[in-house]
Write a structure and sequence with these properties.
The chain is α+β, with helices and mostly antiparallel strands. The protein has helices spanning 10-15, 21-33, 49-52, 56-68, 76-90, 124-129, 133-148, 151-173, 176-211, 218-237, 243-249, 255-267, 279-286, 353-358, 415-425, 433-437, 455-459, 468-475, and strands spanning 37-38, 101-105, 112-115, 119-123, 290-291, 299-301, 304-307, 312-315, 320-324, 329-333, 338-345, 365-375, 378-386, 391-399, 402-410, 429-430, 442-448, 489-494.
């Protein structure tokens, strides 16, 4: 992982590492071993030229990574700017002979990372958060520093050994849960070790940016925006209650520490406000870039998930925040006491859903709770499962050639929680033709500030479901008391 990765409580559902460990382990682990499981993405990726340039071993890792992050994203103007930035940074780096290849990943997550050999990756969520070329240069220089210092190679070997150890425990002791715990403990030591690597890459990256003529303070500005974005997400998803554990499991120093160190490193090269930022060129390259989920993979609108290509929609219970991933739709409440996962499997048409749901989809199924039903005209089955700390309400819904699995988890399965889960499952239905036609992505639009425009007026134009002002300020790197100047370019999110 990299300095720029953002964590969220949904990571707990994927990794089984935080407060919803049991739920994440039972569902994510099961899905990973199920050969008939399919994701919620049916989008074909654009041609991936980088893959053709890599040796077989690196190609496999590259393709796995690209698939995990929604495929390759194409934006010619942005790709051209990034390629020129990398070329300029590379020419003065410690090892200018390294040939770097950059892939923009079709993911709203905020992340960037490097693989051995010079393959660099940035998500479109990250490029949307940056506000000028020097900020994106700071991210790329940081990842180049990892390559030059061979951090990616050493971390790759550590992770490989941790995975081998966990598999041995799982196979020899026939205990996959114990194997997963061993892997989690190994990752803690990897995370602790890599903090030093991240700070080293910070320092080297700032130096590369400065020597290439970019504003070295771009790193501290981008880290500030990333920290504010994390706080906004935490308020919506309940990550604040998990912050201590998340910081402990993080492979990076805390954001305030990084900002302070990055600023101090930059002062060694130049005074603030004295170097090139190139804001206009960068913002121009963002015009029309998709923001948030790509509708080809389904997208979230508040508590609702829609997938126009697969033709269905689903609404989560009150109080849930949703996140779409290529593998599943994940959700959690702000308290962290309830969670959900929606994914799909391909099953034989003759297999009864009641038999499937009773067969041990997850451990702890109450066989007496299995029942068949119909949800908006589609065959379905439901059951209850119980663990030591979590209770589950499970649904399997046959829709076309696939079976969609809805799993709700609660620390306490109260009558109110049970009713809300059943109501949410009942919202699963086919999209109408009109709904599918109107399922358009959100995009970044660059607007020029007018004479009487204020941050409040500009924020009101944001096509986001909530916290328009906060999102506008973070997206544009502005403080709450900022005064907009006429003619300034700003980013808006439009439909």
């Amino acid at each position: 992982m990299s300095l720029w990765q953002m964590s969220s409580p949904y990571e707990a559902l994927r990794k089984g590492a935080l407060a919803v460990f049991v739920f994440g382990l039972a569902l994510a682990g099961c899905a990973a071993l199920d050969p008939e499981r399919i994701g919620l993405s049916d989008a074909g990726s654009p041609r991936d030229e980088v893959a053709t340039q890599l040796p077989p071993a690196q190609r496999r890792e590259h393709e796995r990574l690209v698939t995990s992050y929604g495929g390759v994203y194409r934006a010619p103007a942005l790709e051209s700017l990034i390629a020129k930035t990398v070329e300029r940074l590379s020419s003065i780096s410690e090892n200018p002979s390294v040939k770097y290849r950059v892939t923009i990943l079709n993911s709203p997550a905020i992340n960037a990372f490097a693989l051995p050999g010079g393959s660099l990756y940035i998500t479109r969520g990250l490029v949307a958060l940056a506000n000028d070329t020097s900020e994106i240069a700071s991210v790329l220089a940081h990842e180049m520093a990892h390559v030059v210092a061979r951090h990616a190679s050493s971390r790759e070997e550590q992770i490989r050994q941790a995975v081998i150890e966990s598999r041995v425990i799982s196979d020899v002791l026939s205990d996959p849960n114990l194997g997963a715990l061993a892997l989690a403990k190994s990752k803690l030591s990897i995370a602790t070790f890599s903090r030093g690597q991240e700070l080293e890459a910070d320092a080297v990256g700032v130096g590369i940016s400065a020597r290439a003529g970019y504003d070295p303070y771009g790193a501290s500005r981008f880290l500030t925006a990333m920290g504010k974005y994390a706080e906004l997400r935490a308020a919506a998803t309940g990550a604040e209650s998990l912050r201590d554990r998340m910081d402990f499991l993080s492979s990076h120093p805390s954001t305030p520490e990084r900002i302070s160190i990055a600023f101090s490193n930059a002062r060694q090269y130049i005074a603030p406000e004295s170097a090139e930022r190139d804001r206009k060129t960068y913002l121009d390259s963002l015009e029309g870039v998709i923001y948030g989920d790509d509708p080809k993979e389904g997208f979230v609108r508040g508590r609702r998930f829609l997938h126009s290509n697969l033709g269905f929609t689903f609404t989560a219970p009150e109080g849930f925040s949703l996140e779409n991933t290529p593998q599943a739709v994940l959700g959690a409440t702000a308290s962290g006491k309830q969670a959900l996962r929606l994914d799909a499997v391909r099953l034989p048409a003759q297999l009864a859903l009641s038999s499937y749901i009773a067969s041990g989809w997850i451990d702890g199924i109450d066989q007496t709770s299995v029942e068949t039903l119909e949800i908006n005209g589609f065959p379905a089955a439901t059951a209850v499962a119980r663990g030591e700390q979590w209770s589950f309400r499970l649904f399997a819904i046959r829709f076309g050639s696939d079976v969609y699995r809805l799993a709700f988890a609660a620390r306490e399965m109260s009558p109110a929680a049970e009713a809300s889960f059943r109501n949410a499952a009942g919202s699963f239905r086919r999209l109408s033709v009109e709904e599918s036609k109107n399922a358009n992505p959100l995009r970044i639009s660059i607007a020029r500030v007018g004479l009487r425009d204020t941050v409040e007026k500009m924020a009101a134009r944001m096509a986001v479901p909530d916290k328009k002002l906060e999102r506008f300020l973070i997206l544009n790197g502005l403080d709450r008391n900022a005064q907009l100047k006429m003619g300034t370019l700003v980013k808006l999110i439009t439909e």
